[in-house]
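The authors assume throughout that readers already know how a fold can be written as discrete tokens. In essence, backbone conformation is discretised, so a fold becomes a row of integers matching the chain in length. A single example would do more here than another paragraph of explanation. For illustration, here is how one protein appears when written out as sequence plus structure tokens:

…
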Amino acid sequence: MRVSGKVAVVTGASRGVGLATAKRLQAEGASVIITDIHAERGAASAEQLGVEFFQQDVSSAEGWQSLAQSLRERHGRLDILVNNAAILQAASVVDESVEGWQQMMAVNAGSVFLAIKTLLPLMAEQDGGSIINLSSSSALMGMPQFCAYTAAKAAVRSLTMSTAVLCKQQGRGVRCNSIHPDGINTDMVREIAASLPAADKQQYQRTAPFICQPEDIANTILFLASDESKHINGAAIAIDNTATIHPPYL
């Protein structure tokens, strides 16, 4: 029971990494609240796990305020915040629309800002807590076909570092780290892959070893959420089987 007695919020948790994370945290003793913009799917997932569900548009400041109020009223605390909610779209800087860029920034980066701004004070009140931000391996390298996504995930990394230093300066025991997966075997990734030009067999064979399962991400989040990682603050943890350090000729 590595997070027994802790209260956790996991955003975008109706499926994929968020759902796997909620399941892992609950199994280890946490009281879990999952949030998602999709009400029906989110409620069904929450019922399946036996956890709380809060419908939320993570790009809305008002939604975050409502969640904060609910946490105070129902639990009086927050120990673990997992900023997982994200969208994925493919386009180069030439092809991306202004609206597409703005939406990607609002959901994938702006939501993390709103989450920390709104909920960090609640976490600091009990002198401890862990914020885990889902970034990406793409934040650490150039991927021209995903210009807005990579930029948003790079912003998440920078915000993580700024928050981690602030938390250390405040001395209230809250930590903030980011994790950087490569490809994950989720519905969202499969959906975007289906819209791209088909990769040839050789290319697939080269990328397949870098793809992980949602449970691999959930296990790392559990470690960062637990007191086992109490001296890890501001780290960027790659979950990519060397993808971000892989020489192109190997």
Summary: The two ends are 41 Å apart (CA to CA). Residues 179 and 220 are 8 Å apart (CA to CA). The helical segments are 16-27, 39-49, 61-74, 98-125, 147-170, 187-194, 201-207, 214-225.
